[in-house]
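User: quick one, sequence for these tokens?
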């Protein structure tokens, strides 16, 4: 039986994360959005607070939180953090860099990397997407050639969150393209490894304070001990990582949707037109009601996916459903928020338009909405077999 009742400790932790984000991360968010600047000072404070390694065991410097407690914290982050780029940096660092090392790494790899990542001394990233391999992950062209006690990587990764500032990148490459999925292998590549470079930083529509870039590997030398798992295990690591990503990252969006609804309610109560608050007009009430319905549906879908992950129940379809609905619901609620705020909603200084720009990215990153629908349909037909 699914039970989504939070304990007092979980609720207190969620509130503590919200207050921390509100105080230490949010100030200056508008300026950083305009300039595309990453807040490294807040990153260091987040490491001290314990935000950067929530699900990682305490033995490696993490918080030792279970999946649902981590989700509660991420929802608190969404509630309190107005800097979506910073939230994205936390998610990319923790969910698609730390978690694969924790779940699939050797004891040496865990001991070597996780403490530095959890403390915030290092920043992590994950290199999956390529210029010609976005949704089509089997088309990965980055190659890995075994050469004695090392591998030599060649290729390019594109749209990598945290890429330009990362100290460690989980890189997916193929040891044999003819083997398709069975050739894909994961590697842990440090910033200083010979042949690894950042070719350029990308200018994005939203989440602009998160450095995103193109990574290049030219005869990049990676020690054998930095292979993550065995040769050919990369696709299973990748799919597991995406499941974690969809379960944990979504609740940050849920927190942002709640904050946005509260902001709209306050505005609708205070803004007077035609002699009365606009919240008394039925068309405005309809938008507010729809935003509330989307918020509650999003929250339940996220919690279900997280509950299944925590209880080790296969949750591919549920994670895809949650990812699809929440990302698209967030966009629609952001559009409604702009309409409620009218001309002010179109102005940068009022934050509302930024919510829309930030929300759009989630319909593309981590698997496009179209890919989510295809996966859901495939799982439905598989259920008939």
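Assistant:
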């Amino acid at each position: 039986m699914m039970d989504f009742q939070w304990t007092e400790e979980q609720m207190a932790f969620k509130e503590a994360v919200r207050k921390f984000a509100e105080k230490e991360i949010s100030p200056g968010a508008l300026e950083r959005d305009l300039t595309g600047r990453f807040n490294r000072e807040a990153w260091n404070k987040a490491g001290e607070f314990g935000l950067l390694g929530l699900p990682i065991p305490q033995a490696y410097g993490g918080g030792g939180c279970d999946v649902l407690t981590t989700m509660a914290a991420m929802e608190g982050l969404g509630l309190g953090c107005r800097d979506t780029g910073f939230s994205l940096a936390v998610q990319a660092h923790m969910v698609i860099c730390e978690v694969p090392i924790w779940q699939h790494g050797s004891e040496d790899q865990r001991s070597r990397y996780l403490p530095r990542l959890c403390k915030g001394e290092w920043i992590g990233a994950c290199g999956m997407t390529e210029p010609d391999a976005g949704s089509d992950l089997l088309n990965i062209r980055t190659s890995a050639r075994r050469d004695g006690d090392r591998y030599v990587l060649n290729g390019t990764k594109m749209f990598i969150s945290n890429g330009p500032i990362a100290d460690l990148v989980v890189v997916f490459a193929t040891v044999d393209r003819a083997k398709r999925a069975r050739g894909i292998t994961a590697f842990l590549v440090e910033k200083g490894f010979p042949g690894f470079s950042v070719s350029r930083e990308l200018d994005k529509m939203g989440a602009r304070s998160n450095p995103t870039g193109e990574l290049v590997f030219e005869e990049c030398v990676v020690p054998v001990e930095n292979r993550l798992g065995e040769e050919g295990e990369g696709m299973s690591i990748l799919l597991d990582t995406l499941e974690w990503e969809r379960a944990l990252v979504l609740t940050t969006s849920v927190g942002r949707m709640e904050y946005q609804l509260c902001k709209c309610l306050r505005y609708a109560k205070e803004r007077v037109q035609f002699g009365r608050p606009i919240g008394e007009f039925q068309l405005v009430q309809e938008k507010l009601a729809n935003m509330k319905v989307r918020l509650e549906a999003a929250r339940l879908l996220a919690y279900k996916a997280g509950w299944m992950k925590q209880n080790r129940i296969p949750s591919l379809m549920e994670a895809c459903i949650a990812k699809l609905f929440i990302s698209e619901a967030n966009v629609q609620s952001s559009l409604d928020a702009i309409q409620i705020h009218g001309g002010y909603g179109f102005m940068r200084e009022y934050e509302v338009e930024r919510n829309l720009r930030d929300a759009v990215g989630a319909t593309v990153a981590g698997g496009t909405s179209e890919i989510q629908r295809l996966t859901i349909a495939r799982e439905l037909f598989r259920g008939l077999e």
